[in-house]
Write a structure and sequence with these properties.
Mean pLDDT of chain A: 91
Strand order of the largest sheet of chain A: 2-3-1-4-5
Number of helices of chain B: 12
Number of domains of chain B: 2
Strand order of the largest sheet of chain B: 7-6-5-8-9
Order of helices and strands of chain A: EHEEHEEEEEEEE
Shape of chain B: globular
CATH topology of the largest domain in chain A: Alpha-Beta Plaits
CATH superfamily of the largest domain in chain A: Aspartate carbamoyltransferase regulatory subunit, N-terminal domain
Oligomer: heterodimer
Distance between the termini of chain A: 49 Å
Strand content of chain A: 35-45%
CATH architecture of the largest domain in chain B: 3-Layer(aba) Sandwich
Radius of gyration of chain B: 20 Å
Largest interface: A-B, 16 and 19 residues
Distance between the termini of chain B: 24 Å
Strand content of chain B: 5-15%
Helix content of chain A: 10-25%
Largest sheet of chain A: 5 strands, antiparallel
Order of helices and strands of chain B: HEHEHEHEHEHEHEHEHEHHH
């Protein structure tokens, strides 16, 4: 009989983000949680597909569209499951928007968005590995270079 | 897309048909001057960075079409010095003028201006990002020098860009524009100032790969157009390295003895040391007429965004 040990505690209800690049797990936990939230964090867990991965489980919370958009930026390729009464009611890849608006700062220090009050806007150039282009300065960046605001 | 009221911000916003339309209208206005076409229209020039050719040729273009010009030529004399934002400046100036030409050191400033302006914004250069009207005049110059070749007649034009291919905004925009045409692109970068990877990737994806040539001598022998760019001292951390490269990276009349007869040399100007003055009197020098082409091209753009292009090529009403 096969015997698998659960690597991160189960939750009764809430959201599970799986397949997070291992080095972004802490960042994802920071993004998705607020003071007082109950959450479980697993980092550098074994993964057949990724080698190592991160998992974040947040109890009694489902994510807003804005938060999901931020999640797509820092953990593209992650999956999101909704848990209700210990049952997985949905499990999907984190949806990749075609643009990221007002959630990150442009890494180009000479971009006008870093000198005036402007809503930043990045268009997805390539989904994997995720690359975005600033609508203002027109420079392209790997998603990992963007800093969430 | 309608031209009236359109902003001119980035080469990436224009289709092949758009570019050919601009070139055709520029040629028409050069052949047949229209001194009253923009009578009663006002152009505001907001140049928060220094400019000679761009500002003067825009002013000449507007004046030759019967329009008038107001402007700021020095950021220190404007409200920007008091901390006024670009958005507030544009919202104020668009109450005064029918079209605004903006040059600013921050990349993306023209796009921001277009987001808030009620009148067309023409990007006169935004930092290291875009200078689309320079690219249109470069295209116009190539089209005039090699009629029909840009549209595929005869062998593909061999166009070589040389010099600072990393920071030079004119070569990035020119490369983007030329991917719309059947040309053979080549490059001779100064070591350390190579073309950014994303520019090369985009050209490759557009079916216009850029071939690396070993040196300027090869470029002179194997090009129809050699597009030179200026080296800027501030790009070199080591002053000695700058002096070395400046001396090595130079086209002179002696080098042109091996040039293909049809070779034409372009440069967005100002030049420093990269083209010797003895090249000026050779038939290969085309950079002065190139600067002159800024006027009909900017006339065409002004007529288009102010909704007067059809009148320009029509009965003259």
């Amino acid at each position: 009989m096969s015997h698998r040990v659960r690597q991160v505690e189960a939750i009764e209800a809430g959201t599970v983000i799986d397949h997070i690049p291992s080095d972004r797990a802490l960042e994802v936990a920071h993004l998705l949680t607020a003071p007082g939230d109950q959450f479980f964090l697993g980092a550098h867990l074994r993964s057949d597909n990724m080698g190592h991965k991160g998992v974040v489980k947040i109890a009694n919370k489902e994510l807003s569209p804005s938060t999901i958009s931020r999640l797509a930026l820092i953990a593209p390729g992650a999956t999101m499951s909704i848990i209700r009464d210990y049952v997985v009611v949905s499990k999907d890849p984190v949806p990749m928007p075609d643009r990221f608006t007002a959630i990150a700062r442009c890494p180009n220090s000479n971009c006008v968005t870093n000198h005036e009050t402007v809503t930043t806007d990045f268009l997805v150039v390539r989904p994997s590995p995720l690359e975005v282009r600033c609508r203002f300065c027109e420079r392209s960046f790997p998603a990992s270079e963007l800093v969430l605001t | 897309m309608s031209w009236a009221g359109r902003h001119i911000i980035s080469i990436a916003d224009f289709s092949t048909e758009d570019m050919l339309h601009i070139l055709d209208l520029a040629a028409s206005l050069e052949r047949q001057p229209r001194p009253d076409l923009l009578a009663g229209r006002l152009m505001a020039t907001l140049f928060f960075e220094s400019s000679t050719r761009t500002r003067l040729s825009f002013e000449a273009a507007m004046s030759k079409l019967g329009g008038q010009v107001i402007g700021v030529t020095d950021a220190l004399s404007s409200s920007a010095r008091k901390g006024e934002t670009i958005a507030d400046t544009i919202r104020m100036v668009d109450q005064y003028a029918d079209v605004i030409v903006l040059r600013h050191s921050h990349e993306g400033s023209a796009r921001l201006a277009s987001d808030v302006s009620r009148v067309p914004i023409i990007n006169g250069g935004d930092g290291a990002n875009q200078h689309p009207t320079q690219t249109f005049l470069d295209l116009y110059t190539i089209a005039k020098l090699f009629p029909d070749r840009l549209q595929g007649a005869g062998a593909p034009l061999r166009i070589t860009v040389a010099g600072d291919l990393r920071y030079g905004r004119t070569v990035h925009s020119l490369l983007t524009a030329l991917t719309h045409f059947p040309v053979c692109m080549q490059m001779v970068p100064v070591p350390g100032l190579e073309m950014p990877g994303h520019c090369l990737d985009e050209a490759q994806m557009a079916g216009c790969p850029v071939q690396l040539l070993p040196d300027l001598e090869t470029a002179v022998a194997q090009s129809d157009v050699l597009y030179m760019t200026r080296l800027q001292r501030e790009r070199f951390p080591d002053p000695l390295e700058f002096e070395h490269v400046k001396s090595a990276y130079r086209v002179d009349a002696a080098m042109l003895r091996s040039a293909a007869p049809q070779l034409r040399i372009l440069h967005p100007l100002p030049r420093v040391n990269e083209i010797a003055v003895d090249v000026d009197t050779t038939p290969h020098a085309a950079y002065v007429p190139q600067a002159g082409n800024g006027v009909p091209v900017r006339q065409a753009l002004l007529a288009l965004v102010l909704g007067r292009a059809e009148v320009a090529v029509g009965s003259g009403a």
